[in-house]
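Is this the right way to post structure tokens for a design question? Let me know if I should format differently. Anyway, here goes:
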């Protein structure tokens, strides 16, 4: 089953049904109230829950490894994401080489995120990373497939995953792929869920909360939305927003489930 991680301000986690799959930014955890960190730490102890800790590289512009270590100590994540540089294969490989062992030391599994200026470059980067991980007998890893692939051409992320599973078929049966975000909307992942559900552990997105702030229900026809830093620092706690966010999270979960089921 493909799980969904709604990306939310940490202070709202205890107010919403966030499910059993979570992705949080390290700097959001370290800046949050202690009660939020305790809530995430409690969740991480539940064997049915998965907590993914992101390094914040894309949002901050540079990796804050100290914040990553502090956040990992606070919430005990199941997976830590290794830093990457958007659309830059060379810089991403440098970051991978520099930080993958640190990230592996902070959680049972590491998520590596290949990058490139094209789908083909992304595939080259993925191949380099995976070959290194297998050669060094690092078996507990997840490949993060970013939403930016869909900006290269329509279905770019689909083609990247198709290549990945043909080149490394062992990944297919280990739930070793996570979809990082949705560029245009939930329709981005429809074909991926239909054709590759056995390989995908989950997907994350800010869409449910972003759409809630816009008083919009998440769906294939909903407008593209996003969150800025202020939405995380000073999130709205209005009842109408929380209700709409709850509805949107349920809509996305049902959408993923329905499209995954249609494959069987």
């Amino acid at each position: 089953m493909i799980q969904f991680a709604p990306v939310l301000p940490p202070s709202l986690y205890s107010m919403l049904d966030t499910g059993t799959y979570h992705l949080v930014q390290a700097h959001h955890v370290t800046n949050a109230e202690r009660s939020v960190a305790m809530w995430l730490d409690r969740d991480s102890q539940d064997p049915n829950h998965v907590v993914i800790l992101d390094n914040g590289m894309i949002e901050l512009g540079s990796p804050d490894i100290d914040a990553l270590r502090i956040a990992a100590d606070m919430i005990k994540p199941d997976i830590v994401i290794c830093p990457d540089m958007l659309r830059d294969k060379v810089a991403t490989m440098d970051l991978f080489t520099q930080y993958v062992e640190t990230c592996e030391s902070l959680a049972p599994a590491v998520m590596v995120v290949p990058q490139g200026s094209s789908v083909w470059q992304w595939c080259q980067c993925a191949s380099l990373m995976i070959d290194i991980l297998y050669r060094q007998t690092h078996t507990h890893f997840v490949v993060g497939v970013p939403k930016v692939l869909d900006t290269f051409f329509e279905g770019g992320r689909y083609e990247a995953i198709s290549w990945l599973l043909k080149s490394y078929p062992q990944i297919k049966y280990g739930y070793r792929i996570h979809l990082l975000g949705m560029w245009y909307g939930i329709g981005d992942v429809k074909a991926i869920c239909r054709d590759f559900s056995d390989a995908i552990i989950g997907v994350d997105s800010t869409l449910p909360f972003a759409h809630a702030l816009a008083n919009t229900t998440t769906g294939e026809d909903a407008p593209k939305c996003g969150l800025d830093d202020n939405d995380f620092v000073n999130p709205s706690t209005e009842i109408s927003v929380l209700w709409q966010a709850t509805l949107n999270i349920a809509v996305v979960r049902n959408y993923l489930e329905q499209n995954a089921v249609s494959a069987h």
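Format looks fine. Someone answered above. Worth noting: The mean pLDDT is 89. Residues 57 and 63 are 5 Å apart (CA to CA).
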